[in-house]
Amino acid sequence: MTDEKTVFISCGIFKAELEYLARAGRFNGEVVFLDAALHVNFDKLKKHLEAALSTADKPGASLRVLYGYCHPDMSGILGAHGAEKIRAGNCLEAIIGAAEIQRLDAEAKTFFLTAGWINNWENMFAMGKEDFDFDFTTMFSQYKRIIVFDTGVIPLDDDKIRLFSEFTGLPVERRMISLDHLLGLVSELRASTEA
User: Fold this and answer.
1) pLDDT digits (tens, 9 = 90+) for 80-131
2) Which of 13, 49, 53, 86 could join 81 in a cystine, given CB atoms 3.0 to 4.6 angstroms apart?
3) Fold of 5-92+179-194
4) Residue-wise pLDDT tens digits, 21-53
5) Under 8 Å between Cβ of 193 and 62
6) Own/partner pairs, 177-182, CB within 8 angstroms, 24+ separation
């Protein structure tokens, strides 16, 4: 048994799912959510993540991070605070698993999205355009399709799906999934606190 208090710092992309799991009694804990669009700007992501870690880094606190390797120095940022992250390279691997991503991509070169991502793609792209004047239309030429993973937690905006399909010139498929993989990773991360 430990006296440590676990604090989760999470990308906002998981907010609806974690709140749903909490309401269902399958997850509990203090969670600090950061804006999901931060991943398009490494400097902003590092600044906000370091600030959240510093604020939560109190005596007796155990810091757990729900992010992929969204920053090139993610290990260094977390290491400075003794924080541990989920075993996933990105939010898609966290929600469905790396093996399933590879299997689906082997069928056809696929751009994968979560429901939270598809509903907020315009905001994320706007931040990238504002910060770097990046033309996001160039990043889809190698893909054959888009798959949106739908947990049923976040209502998908059909207009945003249609607009994203038009923006990319790619067909969009919805795949229903459970939250079991994400919950397993979070539970594993929590268990490392209690070990």
Assistant:
1) 999 999 999 998 999 999 999 999 999 999 999 888 888 777 776 766 666 6
2) 53
3) Rossmann fold (3.40.50)
4) 999 999 998 999 999 878 778 899 999 999 999
5) yes
6) 177/95, 177/96, 177/149, 177/150, 177/151, 178/151, 179/17, 179/20, 179/21, 179/95, 179/151, 179/153, 181/94, 181/95, 181/96, 181/97, 182/14, 182/17, 182/94, 182/95
Length of the chain: 195
- How far apart (Å, rounded) are the C-alpha atoms in residues 113 and 149? 6
- Are residues 163 and 126 in contact, defined by beta-carbon separation less than 8 angstroms? no
Scan for tokens 């006296």, then name that residue: 3
* pLDDT at 2 exceeding the cut of 60: no
Among the listed residues 152, 153, 151, 144, the one whose alpha carbon sits nearest the alpha carbon of residue 172: 144
Show me where the domains of the chain are located: 5-92+179-194, 97-176
The predicted model scores a pTM of 0.83
